[in-house]
Amino acid sequence: MDAYTNSELISIFAMQGFAGISLFSVLLLMALGLAIIFGQMGVINMAHGEFMAVGAYTTYFLATFTENYFPSFMPYYFVFAIVVAFFVAGILGYFAEFLLIRHLYTRPLDTLLATWGLSLIMQQSFRSLFGAREVSPTLPDWLLGSYQPTETIHIPLNGMFVLGLTAVVTMTVYYLMYKSRWGLRVRATTQNRIMSGAVGINTKKVDRYTFALGCGIAGIAGAAFTTIASTGPTTGSLYIVDTFMVVVFGGAASLFGTIASAFTIAQAQSILEFFISGSMAKVYTLFALVLILMFKPEGLFASKVRR
Amino acid sequence: MSFVYERLMGGKKGLTGFIILATLILVIFPLFLDSFRLGLAGKYLTYAFAAVSLVLLWGYGGILSLGQGIFFGLGGYAMAMFLKLEASSPENTAIQSTPGIPDFMDWNQITELPWFWEPFTSFTFTILAVLILPALFAYIIGAAMFKRRVGGVYFAIITQVIAVILTVLIVGQQGFTGGINGITDLRTLNGWDITSDSAKTIFYFVTCALLLLVIVASRAIMTSKFGRILLAVKDKEDRVRFSGYDVANFKIFVFCFGAMISAIGGAMFTLQVGFMSPSFVGIVPSIEMVIFAAVGGRMSLIGAVYGTLLINFGKTAFSESFPELWLFLIGGLFIAVVMLFPNGLAGIWEDHGHKVTDRFRFIGKWFNKLTAQAKLRKAEDAKL
């Protein structure tokens, strides 16, 4: 540790901290979708990572398409891609719920297996459609480069953009779930399905749109992911365990808990990564999480709902 | 006699299934498969240990463990560490900068055998480690989780995370564990060449015998009072708790027992295949083990073996000719088994098997006729 001067250490912390914030943004975007699906509906969606990959591949496809046919549109395509990624992943999620999930609501452990099967099929589809190699879209110029507040600190612009996007999505989800009529119906269905049905809520429709929304947010996470790393057929499966940990650690039905736990996990991992190897950083982070969950199984911020 | 018949074999139906399975793996496979395919079958049968443990855990106990690979791996690694130490005697490793330690340690500039490797020079310790270490590990996880009434989905996720931790640890600590390649080049067991054909055949039969033994032991547990309470816990946990049982202890026991079975499978895997690597520890193998049990029928100990054999032979056949299709097929199988056949092969057999067995009814009739004739003759002899 003696090799670094104080100002260098501060820069390292700032930069690693910001790298952690990029990881935090992607984890949070993925976890938001999963928190809705798992926290509100109790469905374990093992294919959630693949819905993220759908968003990432949609962005890649649009980028290639724009580059080849409408090069002048390049600076603007990315915003458009985020919206398209949301709808493509959301519509796929809608059909997945209709064909698969809705038959399994009473058997949560079986949804886990069925969605794992779905994730294998989706992975192979990516491989057949886009090839086994990792791909990354050509990013618009305004996402490249970095912001330099001081001589030694470089903060990449794409990270800042993703952070902003995450803030917007989180706020929208908060509004949807806690301030809108629709969110009221979702929460009512979560708390008491039979009573909600009795007061005239179409619970099946609520389920379907909730699942589609969760998958759509995963699609946005995928679009954001392309600015940070390249996408391969198995990218989604790399993040699925981390995402589940974020949701479980945060307390399944709590939006604030999800944000706090995504922040803690991402920061712990990326700051540790600088001092020890990346794999050991992951081991320590996950191990600490498992230990904490053993003593506090309900997570950081448990919901007060009785089930 | 009735104890053996009713409890260990599961009555007439169970006995028939058991005899058919034993005939298949002990007689038909060795007679009709060439040595390469027999080796594959032996390897798959070691996975069946984990599948059988999942029938106990998931089918009877309602606890879905997505971490049976952890225990399979621990058993396998314990055995591999012993074999590796035997393979790296100072004479065999004289060209290394530090002779007498495994080659991968030498490549990673480790000059001394780590402390946790030391006890694995003893064969007795290794056998005990295979049987006890995974069960102990399972006890720690199980006690921490079940005593706090963590179950169902959360348990599945936590076991999965532990599997990830263990895999990342093994891959990351290359110098101590052999990294992503695992522990390779295992040749002898107490001076006996394990790569020879005769050794492989012997290991095949030992695996079969152990597997059949495990099935019998599992059935003994499941048909006992313990098994009934476990089943009751799965269906209505609260009622069992209100009846005064400590539910957690039942779950912990079956989790430890399942861990031990899986570890035996892992150790036999290492002996037959001659290496152990992290690719048998992580999430993917662990979930595959669940699908073996699901395809075989989550409530059927014998079905789990068929499920394992079927999927693995299918995987080998398909990945030889159509590697692209395999993932689609296995993914579809996951979905189909959950949605259409929740009781797997065993369920299909229950529903339609009698059509097949009816054809063979004549064997039973013939047997009854023979015994009746013998009785008659005996009676006539007595009269005379």
Structure description:
The complex is a heterodimer of chains A (307) and B (384). Helices cover 72% and strands 1% of the residues of chain A. Chain A is an all-alpha fold. Chain A has a two-stranded antiparallel ribbon. Chain A is globular and about 65 Å long. Chain B has one domain (2-369). A two-stranded antiparallel sheet of chain B has the order 1-2. The radius of gyration of chain B is 23 Å and the shape is globular. The model of chain B has no long low-confidence stretch (mean pLDDT 86). The chains are: A mainly alpha (307), B mainly alpha (384). Chains A and B meet through helix 4, helix 9 and helix 11 of A and helix 7, helix 13 and helix 15 of B.
Span between termini of chain A: 50 Å
Helix content of chain B: over 70%
The beta-strand count of chain B equals 2
Backbone shape of chain B: globular
Share of residues in strands of chain B: under 5%
Instruction: State the major sheet of chain B.
Output: 2 strands, antiparallel
Placed side by side, the strands forming the largest sheet of chain B appear as 1-2
- Average the pLDDT over all residues of chain B and give the rounded result: 86
Q: Using DSSP, what is the number of strands of chain A?
A: 2
Query: Helix-strand pattern of chain A, N to C?
Result: HHHHEEHHHHHHH
Structural class of chain B: mainly alpha
Whole-number total of structural domains of chain B: 1
The quaternary structure here is: heterodimer
Report the uncertain regions of chain B.
none
Main beta sheet of chain A: strand number and arrangement? 2 strands, antiparallel
How many domains of chain A, as an integer?
A: 1
- Average pLDDT confidence of chain A is 84
User: Cα distance, first to last residue of chain B?
Assistant: 32 Å
- Gyration radius from CA atoms of chain A, angstroms: 20 Å
